[in-house]
Design brief:
single chain; six-stranded parallel β-sheet
Length: about 220
Amino acid sequence: MTHPLFAVIFDHDGTLVNSEPVHHQCWQQAIAPFGASFPLADYVHHLTGIPSASSAQWIIDRFNLPTDAARLYASKQTFVDTFLQTDAFPLMPHAEELVRFCFDAGLKLAVASGAGRKEITRSLSVHGLDRWITTVASKDDVQNNKPAPDVYQFALHQLKITPEHAIAIEDSNAGEASARAASLKCLRLHATDEHPRVVSIRHLADAVDWIEQQLQKNRTVS
């Protein structure tokens, strides 16, 4: 990366918070009346990073359910909303450490997610990350969800930062595609395919190390 780093944009589900088990359970509740069920491994393999409306259609097609995507999604979302009334998605390992490090380093911070704004702000508030992250770009703010670049472009606009001065941190194929389409370099959890703008990381502590090295390079150049 040859340009100075000024901002970090985080994905939400699977990156900052371990929400997949909760979303899977809510889908299970939504399809239980139809006598259908599927394991968490299938959710992780097929639906991680996929917008809920598209996930609903995938589930309908897989189980040939006598409903439509809008109704199934609304049912699932009811269970998510109920969960969030009294609880929050748990943080991923090293998430707080990473966010705090970036803030202390003087970087601008944002979340760009395919989730709804209410889910994101709930996570930030409950875990105290809203002390450091005040910019949120959600599916509610854009016309096209991930893998389109819209949420990242919206976040960049809010931050008043151009793509070459920011990085995205992601965990899914759709999220990585969204970041790349927005011309962002992407730190990707467990990346499997090589790409010039993608850096594979094992966990968020690796992101701390990578960003720290980048900031040291910036200071050396300046």
